[in-house]
Fold each of these.
Amino acid sequence: MSHFSFYGSPGLLWDGGREVHDEAEFDRYVSFISFLNEMGIGFNVTAQNLFISSNMLKNERSNTFMEILNKTNLNGVIILKDILKDYVKDKCPNLKTISSINKAYIEQGIHSSASWYKSIFSNFDYCVINGNDMYDFELLNSLEPKKRMIILINEYCARDCIDRSYHIAIKSMRMFKEFDFLSKELMSELRCSGVRCGLLLPKENLEKYFNIGIDHFKIQARESTFETFKKILKKYFD
C-alpha cells in the first residue's frame, strides 16, 4: 500500500451510514481511483459498518466497487468487523486489509493492549493505532512491525472520550430506516466536545515517530471543506 493514499467511500452498504445509490458519484470515484492508481497512489475504501452481516456481504454495489479496487495491489479496505476482513481476503486478495481505529475502540475501549495489537498484525496488513495509544511511545516502540502502523492525526472524538463506542454505533445505525431521525444535525450534537479537524497530533511529535520507525499518517477530513483540509496540512508544513 502506498504511503500516499486516499480514503473514502461512494456510499456503500459496507461502510457506516446509509447506502447511497448515486451512479454519478460512483463513477466519479471510479475515475478518481483510476487516476490515482496510474500515478502509483493507492485508494483505501472505508468499510466500517458495525452491524454488517453475512447477508450484507452479498451486496452487489459493494462487491462491484471492491472488484474495481482489486485490479491492482495499490489499494486497500479499512475494516471494523472480522467477517468482512475474511470475505475480502478470500474474494479480493490484492486488497490490503487495514484494521480500523474504530475496531480498537469497539474491542478494547479507551486503550488497546500489546497482545491485541499482536493479534491484529497477525490478521491484518495494517493497523490504525488507537488514538489514545499514539502518545504511549513505550508501547509503540515495543510493537512490530512499525511499517504497518498508521497514525491518525485528527478525528471526531476528543482524546479519551468515554462515549466513543456509542458515537461509532450511532453512525452505523443510520443505515436502518427506523433510525432516520438520526440526522447529521442530531449526530453532531451526539459527538463529544472534540474538534474533528483540530490538530490532535502535535507537529513536534512527528520526529518521535520517525525515530522509532513509524512514518505512515492519516488525515481524517470526510465532510470537511477543502479549506479546513489545507489548514491541517499548513500546520505541518509551515
Amino acid sequence: MRKNQLLAALYSAWEMLLDIPIPRKMLTTSATIRPPAVAILLALPFIGLLCGAIMILALKFTSIFLANFGNAVLYALVLTIFVLAKDSGRGFRLVMELCYDLAAGNRKIVEILPLLHIRKFPEINDLASNLCAFAICGFLLAAFTYLNFKGASLWAVPVLMMGAAVQGHLLSLRNIRGGLPFLAIPENDRNKLWVLTGFLMLFPAIEFPLAVLVSFGLCFVLAAGARKFFEELYGGATSEMITLAGITAELLTLFCGILLIHG
C-alpha cells in the first residue's frame, strides 16, 4: 500500500472513531483519497493505540512537576474526559438514553436498540439516566486513579484499542437505516482485525498478561455475540448500536484491568 493510501486509511479510521478535528496543516491529498475498506478496518486499532499513547506520554511529562497523588488525579481526570468526549459524548449519552428507556418500562431492550438516537439532555433527564451518568463518570475516575496508583497507567491503551476493535468488527454489518454496509469487508478479511489487534496487545501483555488475555477474549465474545444478535434480530445495525458496543468494550476492558492487575 502506498503512503497516501495508508494515511488516507488512518484519516478515515480517525473520522469514524473520533470527533477530534485533525489540524489542516496535517492534511494532504490523503484526505481526498478513498482507501480500501480493509485498510480502514485495520487502521482502527492503531487509532486506539495512538490516542492512548499520546495521553500517557503527555501525562508522564506532567508527572515531572506533580506529586504522585496529583498526577494520579490528573491522569484519571484527563482520561475520563477523553473517553467520554472523544466522540462528542455520543457513547455516554446513548448509555444514558438506554437507561432512561429501560426505566420507563414501556419497551424491551430489543425494541429500544434500533430506535436509539442522540437526544438532548433535557429529554433524558430522569433519576435512572442521571444515576447512570454519575455511575459511569465515578467508575472511570476511580478506575483510572486506581490503575495509576498500581503503576498500570499503560492500561489506557488496551482500553481504547479494544473499543476500536469491537466497533470495527461490527462495521461490516448492513446499516438498517441506509441499506448498505458501513464498510464493505469481504468475509475472509474480517478476522484480520482481530489478528492485528491481538498482535498489538502482545506489547501490554508483557506487563499485564492475564488482564490482556481475559479482556481480549471477553471483547471478542462481545463483538461476535453483538454481531450475531444484531444480524438475527435486525438484519444489521445502526451507528448508535455500534457506538454502544464500543463503549461497553472500553468499560469491560477497564474493569478487567481493575480486577486482574496487581501492582
Amino acid sequence: MSILDRFLKDQRAEISSLKQKRRKEKTAADKAKWDAEIEGAEMFVRKFMKSKMEPAKAGDIIINNKIYEQFIKKLKGFEVEIQIAEDKLILQYGKTYGSWTGTLELYDLTSHFEPYGEVTKEADLLWPLM
C-alpha cells in the first residue's frame, strides 16, 4: 500500500466517522452543521485522488509530481528556472532567460504525508536548481 493510499484511507475513515455523527443528530439544523464539514472533507479528499496526485520528493520538500510533469510538458521552447524555497518549489518560465512571463508554485505537502512513512519517488527536475 502506497503512502497516498494510506493517507486516503485515513481521510475516508474520518469522513465515515463524520457521517456517523451526522446520523445521530435529531434536528435538520444540527444535521446541516455536519453536512458542511462532511462536504469540506470530501472536497479535500478529491484533491488527493490518485488520478490527480503523485507525491514525490523535490529536494527537502514533497510536491505533487503529476502537476509538475503536466506543466513541464507545456513548456517546450521556454527558458525555465527552478528554485526550492523553504515551503515550495518555484518554477519560473519565459521566452528569454531572466525575463519571466509566468510562475508556478508547488507548495510543500510534507505535513500531509509525513505521518504515513517515507516518500520514495523523486521528482525528475529537468533543469538545474538555482
Amino acid sequence: MLPIGEKLSIATCYASLGDAYLELKQYDESRRWVLESQKIRLDIQDKPGLAYNYKVLVQLELALDDIRGAKVWHNQLLALITPDYSPLFIQIDVLFVAYLIFNHEGDYEKALMLIAVVYNDRVKRNPNVDGLDKRIAELREKLGERYEAIRAQADQETVTSMIEKLQNAYKFIL
C-alpha cells in the first residue's frame, strides 16, 4: 500500500492528464484520467483535489453539451461545502462552474450575478482579473439594457450569499 502522499501525487498527475486531454478536446481520455484521479481522491478524502476534479468534469460535460451531467458534477462540488468545511477557493470554484452552466444555458442574469461576485472577490485579493473582465463584457452584450440593474444587484452580493443562492434559489434540479 502506498503512503497517502504518493497516492496524492498520482491522483494529481492523473487529474492533470485529464485536464490536458480536455484542452485537446479528447474527451474520452479526459474523462478516463479524471475519474482515475477521482477514485484515489475519494479513497484518501482529498477534498481540495475532489473540488478540482469536479470542476474539470463540469467543463468536460459542457464541452459535450451535457448540461445535466454538468449539473450533477456541480452538485457534487457544492456538497463539499459544509458548515465545518468551506474554504474560499472551493466556494469560488462552485460559483465559477455555476456561472459556466448558467452561461451555457443562456441564463445570463444568473451568470452575471455569479461572475460579478467572483470578480469583486478577486479584485479585493488580486487586481489581475483580465479573464473575468472578458466574461463580464460578454454578459454585458448579451443582457443589453438589463446589465446595469443586474450588475448593481451583483455588486451587493458576497461569495457566501451566492453559495446560499446556489444551495437554494439557484439550485440545479436534475
